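hey
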């Protein structure tokens, strides 16, 4: 009888462990509304009560699903971790910036990371509810007694003046363009992060004497593109969705995404399954059938302005 109960208990424990593992590898869809009206989408794995926190930033024209194959492996070895992968504005399921909004620079994306960190309350020290993150609201400037504008002092990532252990801070992971955003974010707010991990990327810098040339190229591209992009159709959420190329099926869009990776320098490779994860998150039905059902054809919903050259680069 005891042996039978032991076997039953072990079997139940295995099933419970399997269910827990499955739930950990299945992300939760999250939506956050920023103070400037932009809607951010993100995927979250793990539990808010987890010991560790990890923020993952995707690459250019990708989305949060680019981490969907990596996260389950991370959770296998670091189960007590809450992992959040953000869709940058104009990518994945996040909203687009307004037509007259500021250009999409790395520092702009860093700002939305700050919005997300505050929305998740990751900037607050665990345990006593104190603020171990930003000392001021994003964008505010403290006044000195002399009346001069002064930015709040920035602590080193290894400073421990408040008694914060590294485990209370965020592990920051950036892929490709997300690596550049991660560098800017970690440099501006080092007190947030315990680790900085860069995958296939870094900060894209240009020579300072070429600044005017980059502004000229960006202005010329914007002038040309705006004539064809706007006005555009309006999707169900009321967002501007500029005209996009129609793909007959989801598979054809996946193949296009794979071929894009193959054409990039560096002998890049993207598997079908990984490409499909991202494409499913990055596309919407192109049209309705006569019966009112979604057709098999799809269009990419990313903001086409992401393909414009940057208005400004960091210098070497």
């Amino acid at each position: 009888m005891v042996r039978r109960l032991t076997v039953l208990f072990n079997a139940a424990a295995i099933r419970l462990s399997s269910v827990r593992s499955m739930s950990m590898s299945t992300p939760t869809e999250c939506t956050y509304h920023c103070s400037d009206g932009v809607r951010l989408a993100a995927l979250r794995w793990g539990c808010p009560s987890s010991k560790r926190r990890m923020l993952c930033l995707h690459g250019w024209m990708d989305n949060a699903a680019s981490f969907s194959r990596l996260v389950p492996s991370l959770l296998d070895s670091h189960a007590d971790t809450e992992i959040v992968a953000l869709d940058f504005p104009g990518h994945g399921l996040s909203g687009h910036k307004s037509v007259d909004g500021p250009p999409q620079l790395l520092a702009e994306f860093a700002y939305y990371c700050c919005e997300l960190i505050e929305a998740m309350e990751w900037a607050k020290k665990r345990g006593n509810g104190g603020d171990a993150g930003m000392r001021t609201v994003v964008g505010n400037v403290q006044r000195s007694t002399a009346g001069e504008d002064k930015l709040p002092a920035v602590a080193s990532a290894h400073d421990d003046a408040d008694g914060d252990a590294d485990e209370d801070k965020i592990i920051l992971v950036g892929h490709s363009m997300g690596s550049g955003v991660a560098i800017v974010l970690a440099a501006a707010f080092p007190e947030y992060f315990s680790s900085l991990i860069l995958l296939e990327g870094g900060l894209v810098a240009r020579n300072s004497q070429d600044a005017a040339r980059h502004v000229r190229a960006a202005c010329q591209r914007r002038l040309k593109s705006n004539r064809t992009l706007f006005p555009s159709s309006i999707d169900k959420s009321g967002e501007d969705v500029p005209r996009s190329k129609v793909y007959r099926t989801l598979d054809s869009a996946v193949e296009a995404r794979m071929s894009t990776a193959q054409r990039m320098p560096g002998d890049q490779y993207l598997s079908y399954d990984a490409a499909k994860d991202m494409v499913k998150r990055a596309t919407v039905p192109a049209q309705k059938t006569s019966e009112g059902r979604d057709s098999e054809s799809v269009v990419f919903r990313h903001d086409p302005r992401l393909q414009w050259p940057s208005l400004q680069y960091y210098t070497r």
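Confidence is low (pLDDT under 50) at residues 16-20, 125-164. The radius of gyration is 22 Å.
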